[in-house]
Amino acid sequence: MMIHTNNYILNIKELWDDVPEEYLSHKERYENAIKKAFIVLKVLRQLHTGNIQITDHRTPTNVYSIQDGIFRNVNPLLIHIGLFWSTIAAQASTEQQAEWLQPDSSMIGTYVQTELGHGSFIRGIETTATYDSTTDEFILHTPRLSAYKWWPGGLGNTANACLVMAQLYINGTCHGLHIFLAQIRDFDTHKPLPGIKVGEIGPKMGFNTADNGFLGFDNHRIPRTNMLMKNVQVLRDGTYVKPKHDKLTYGSMLLTRVTLISDLAYQLSKAATIAVRYSAVRRQSPIKSNEPERQILDFVSQQHKLFITIASSHVYRVVGLWMWNSHKRVTADIHEGNMGQLPELHALACCLKAISSRDASALVEQCRLACGGHGYMMASNLPQIYAYTTAAVTYEGEYTVLLLQTARYLVKFWRLAAEHKPLPQNFAYFEDYIKKNFEQWRNSPEGIIEGFKAIVAGKTKAAYDTLQCNLRNGREFEEAWNMASVQLTNASEAYARSLLCEVFWKETVQLSTKVSKSLAIVLEQLAELYLMYWALEKHGDLLLYSTISRNDIEALQSRYEELLALIRPNAVGLVDAFDIRDEVLCSTLGAYDGRVYERMMEEASKSPLNEDVVNESFHKYIRPVTMKNKL
Ligand SMILES: CCCCCCCCCCCCCCC/C=C/C(=O)SCCNC(=O)CCNC(=O)[C@H](O)C(C)(C)COP(=O)(O)OP(=O)(O)OC[C@H]1O[C@@H](n2cnc3c(N)ncnc32)[C@H](O)[C@@H]1OP(=O)(O)O
Ligand SMILES: Cc1cc2nc3c(=O)[nH]c(=O)nc-3n(C[C@H](O)[C@H](O)[C@H](O)COP(=O)(O)OP(=O)(O)OC[C@H]3O[C@@H](n4cnc5c(N)ncnc54)[C@H](O)[C@@H]3O)c2cc1C
């Protein structure tokens, strides 16, 4: 059958709710989501096997984006599709992949790493996998309460299998963290297997349809061949064959951090679409007292809140793709046995994941606030987008912890610069900073990019000097590092911002040569707005570390305000261009037709509290008190 995936999925009635899911209980919400998840999975499987064929392009992305509308919350199979399969594909041997990656597999899996006691510091993970050479098996065990797995999506009820991160022991020697495939529930009855204690962790701020779970093993045995063995092996006699790089096991986190940047761009485009369209419909106060009330989008302060969201969505789209291509390149190199580019990719992924998630959640919240009281309604969908987005600041590597990873990388290059050793081209500016080869400030995108590099150099130097000072004062390295950690994270944050500005500007300039002149003008305005916005936000840092003057800052401010005015006529067009369907946006405030107040009233009528003219609580609780008082 030939299908157009958007239309096909949108026409499956069971995927769309009559009652908004906010009115369902925790249990009903999950059951509703799981029903839909398996309808979607069936479509994906049919696409995979060729039973249905598609007529449109970008299908996985299409399905991915439509599912935001279907679930409003999260697909309970998100980790099954996004992490379980991809980890097997990346870390299992060819034979294991042939056995496990069957499209009609009975396995529904998840990625089980975090424990009650350890999330960030994964070397502290306590679950053990001990090799028993007499039976050719690993024994998975949870030695104490803090070793219980806690958080994995889909683990609570959906998954019957999982990839478990555990400390590998062979003949009493610990070889560190490795990944094991373990079946946890019977494929037919779905009952937990003997030796497995599994359940759901309870309601959260968001992600409530993802049945995040807990898991404990009581000496649970799995075959030796269930350890993921592409990069590392345990042989039948217990011989341990080391990987080429000891962090290859962390590869799934690296890949997810990279893909998250694009996902966050998409969440930003949803929030921007809702807030900009609403701001074009909403009228509140005249600007001049004798004029009619104006669209709130005409208030320059409102443009300041919203246009940076539009621009940031483009930034993360561009940088997400740039990182995706880098990941592809580095993975191909690793395949050839060359690990040289892995540290750089890890350092970039850490700081970009940290800053993209932090920016996205702050900007989604800004969009919600920009919609006034109505933004607080669940029916605006902004609270759900915020709850989803802010989780990304924590999962897949907590914000500060990831910035500190990138700081290790920056400090290494600063040390080279300080010792006058050769630096790679992309860090040549460290040497310029040390030699005080400062460029004269230029009020242009290129000038701002140079200014941001000076901030990175200045902040890395400050952190490095503090670190050295702590060491000279007799502190051990780890303690000295901890004492400098505020400055170290500041340096990483600055590094991420300079990368975002540079990559976005360069890619936009290149893209502008390939599109119509009128489109190129708008794209460059957005890119320039992004750079100006952050230059003004960070003007204190620029004053400290670059040659910018007060007059330059005033000129930047004027240009920024000019850009807001230039973008204003295209604002609605720019969010329409994100091309997000109403069914996916799920927002009374952001629908394409602008029927905001009508939709709000229609949604309110769905409230169960409006089913009866007089709710029975009146007779039970209110009347006895109020009428008694009257007597
Ligand atoms: C339209 C858009 C389409 C897009 C679709 C895609 C959507 C996808 C959405 C996905 C949604 C996901 C839903 C949520 C799922 C959530 C899942 C999880 O949260 S899983 C659990 C994640 N947990 C973490 O991230 C833990 C964070 N902690 C760590 O990663 C590590 O503990 C650590 C890196 C902080 C430290 O590790 P440790 O072993 O202790 O390191 P050392 O200190 O010994 O060494 C540091 C050394 O190692 C290098 N390193 C670290 N990690 C890596 C790596 N991954 N690759 C390469 N190198 C690595 C590091 O650079 C240091 O090197 P050095 O030379 O020594 O400086
Ligand atoms: C919605 C959601 C979904 C998730 N899904 C999964 C999943 O599918 N699978 C899975 O395995 N896990 C999952 N997780 C767990 C997630 O990966 C962890 O919560 C995350 O890695 C953070 O670890 P933590 O909770 O231990 O935080 P902690 O590390 O305890 O952080 C608490 C505070 O301590 C600080 N801190 C910790 N270490 C340091 C340090 N070295 N230096 C400075 N500051 C530090 C942090 O900055 C933070 O402020 C999920 C979490 C969430 C919220």
Automatic annotation (TrEMBL):
Residues 7-103 form the Acyl-coenzyme A oxidase N-terminal domain. Its cofactor is FAD. Pathway: Lipid metabolism; peroxisomal fatty acid beta-oxidation. Residues 250-411 form the Acyl-CoA oxidase C-alpha1 domain. It is found in: Peroxisome. Its main location: other. Pfam families: ACOX, ACOX_C_alpha1, Acyl-CoA_ox_N. Transmembrane segments: none annotated. InterPro entries: ACOX_C_alpha1, Acyl-CoA_ox_N, Acyl-CoA_Oxase/DH_mid-dom_sf, Acyl-CoA_oxidase, Acyl-CoA_oxidase_C, AcylCo_DH-like_C, AcylCoA_DH/ox_N_sf, AcylCoA_DH/oxidase_NM_dom_sf. Residues 445-625 form the Acyl-CoA oxidase C-terminal domain. Keywords: FAD, Fatty acid metabolism, Flavoprotein, Lipid metabolism, Oxidoreductase, Peroxisome. PANTHER family: ELECTRON TRANSPORT OXIDOREDUCTASE, PEROXISOMAL ACYL-COENZYME A OXIDASE 1. Belongs to the acyl-CoA oxidase family. This is Acyl-coenzyme A oxidase. It comes from Bicyclus anynana (Squinting bush brown butterfly). The gene is LOC112051253.
